[in-house]
Protein: Biogenesis of lysosome-related organelles complex 1 subunit 1
Amino acid sequence: MLSSMVKEHQAKQGTKKEIQESKRKEACVAASDLTQALVDHLNVGVAQAYLNQKKLDAEAKQLHASATNFSKQTQQWLNLVESFSSALKEIGDVENWAKSIEGDVRTISTALEIVYKNSQEAAQNQ
Structure:
């Protein structure tokens, strides 16, 4: 009787071990599936972030190129405006010079007219 009880107990223990081993394998498979699902889910996010980063890098390069081009154009415009301003100053200087010369010529002309009139009067009085 005791030996039959031991055999029965060992049989129950063997069955429980098999059930436990089966459940352990199922748990391992489930954990593996869960891990794979989580990794896949994270990979989708990482892949999207990577694509977004590539797009941002390309747009940043394009923006930098555009900003550099705009800076060059702005510098060219500034140089053009500066040269135009210098030309206007030169024209103003020439205009002042011309007015000064014109005033001097008028003064000389007036003086010559006065001298001519005086010399004509002196010749008539003689």
